[in-house]
Write a structure and sequence with these properties.
Length: 305
C-alpha cells in the first residue's frame, strides 16, 4: 500500500524534461552565434552542410548543458530560480543526465568532424570540456572570476562556426569570440546584483558574494569600457562595414551609459526601486549581443547582394 502511494507521487520524466537538460535558451544563443560565424566566413558551404554543422554545434551546446546540470544538481536544488529544473525536482536522475550529456558529446563531435572538418570537431570537443570541467567542476565553485574565465565557453561557438567553413581561425573569428567573452561578465553581474541571495545560499563565489555589490558595480562599468573597442574593431575587418559599425556604436554607447549608471548607484537606491536600473541594463545586455550578430548577418547579406 505504502509502495503504491510512493509510486503515485514520484514525478515522471517527460520529453520536455530531457529537452530542458540541454538548456534550450542557452542553446539558442549557441546556434545563432555559430550560424553567424559560419555565415560570414569567406568560404562558402553547401546549405545541407551548413544545416548539419549548426545542428551538431547545437547538440554540443546541449551536451554541455546536460553535463552542467548533472554536476550542479546540488546547487540548483538550493537556488530559487533553478530548483524546478529536472534533476533537483526529481523528474530526471543524475545518471540519466550524465548519460545524455556524454552521448550527445560523442555524436556531436564525431558528426561535425564527418560533415565539416576535424579541426572544428576538435574545437567543439574542447569547448564542451572547457564548460563541463574547467568552468562547472573547477572555476564556478572556486573563484569569483568564474564567470570571466568560464565565459570563454560561451564565446567559442562563432569561432567553431567559422572553423566549420574555413578549417581554421582568423582575426575576425577571434573578435567575435572577444565580443561575447567581454560581454559575459557585465551581463551576468548585472543579473547577480538582484539575484545575490541565490548565489549566497548556494555557496557560489560570485563577485557580489565575495567582494560586495559596490565592487561588482565598478567591474560592470569597467568591462563595458573594455568591450566597446573590440566590438568596434570587428566592424573594421572583412566581416564589418557601415551597417555593423552604426549598430555597434549605438549599442556600446548605451551599454557604457548603463554601466556608468549602475556604478553610480548606491545599494539603498537600488533596493528602493527594486533594482530597476540593474534590471534594465541586464535586459539591454540581451539585446546587445543579439543585435551585434544580427548586424553582422545583415552587413554580409548587403555586401554579397
Amino acid at each position: 500500500m505504502s509502495d503504491t502511494h510512493a509510486y503515485d507521487h514520484t514525478p515522471e520524466a517527460e520529453f520536455g524534461d530531457f529537452v530542458a537538460l540541454l538548456k534550450p535558451r542557452v542553446m539558442s544563443l549557441v546556434v545563432f552565434t555559430a550560424f553567424v560565424g559560419l555565415w560570414v566566413a569567406p568560404v562558402p558551404m553547401h546549405p545541407f552542410l551548413v544545416f548539419c554543422s549548426v545542428l551538431f554545434i547545437a547538440l554540443g551546446g546541449g551536451a554541455s548543458g546536460a553535463l552542467n546540470m548533472w554536476y550542479d544538481a546540488d546547487i540548483d536544488a538550493v537556488m530559487n530560480r533553478t530548483r524546478g529544473r529536472p534533476i533537483p525536482s526529481g523528474r530526471v536522475s543524475g545518471g540519466e543526465a550524465l548519460g545524455l550529456g556524454l552521448g550527445l558529446t560523442v555524436i556531436a563531435v564525431m558528426m561535425l568532424g564527418l560533415t565539416a572538418n576535424w579541426f572544428a570537431a576538435g574545437f567543439l570537443a574542447f569547448t564542451i570540456f572547457f564548460y563541463a570541467v574547467i568552468y562547472t567542476i573547477w572555476l564556478k565553485r572556486w573563484t569569483p572570476q568564474n564567470i570571466v574565465i568560464g565565459g570563454a565557453a560561451g564565446a567559442f561557438p562563432p569561432m567553431i562556426g567559422w572553423a566549420s567553413a574555413t578549417g581554421g581561425i582568423s582575426v575576425e573569428s577571434f573578435l567575435m569570440f572577444a565580443l561575447i567573452f567581454f560581454w559575459t561578465p557585465p551581463h551576468f553581474w548585472a543579473l547577480a546584483l538582484f539575484m545575490k541571495e541565490d548565489y549566497h545560499k548556494a555557496g557560489v563565489p560570485m563577485l557580489t558574494v565575495t567582494h560586495g555589490r559596490a565592487v561588482t558595480r565598478r567591474h560592470i562599468f569597467g568591462y563595458t569600457l573594455v568591450l566597446a573597442p573590440f566590438a568596434l574593431w570587428l566592424g573594421l575587418t572583412s566581416v564589418g562595414g557601415p551597417i555593423y559599425l552604426a549598430v555597434a556604436l549605438v549599442l556600446n554607447v548605451l551599454f557604457i551609459r548603463g554601466g556608468w549608471q549602475i556604478m553610480r548607484r548606491s545599494e539603498e537606491t537600488a533596493i528602493a526601486d527594486n533594482y530597476a536600473v540593474e534590471r534594465r541594463v541586464f535586459k539591454l545586455s540581451l539585446y546587445y549581443l543579439f543585435l551585434h550578430f544580427l548586424a553582422l548577418m545583415v552587413q554580409h547579406w548587403v555586401g554579397a547582394w
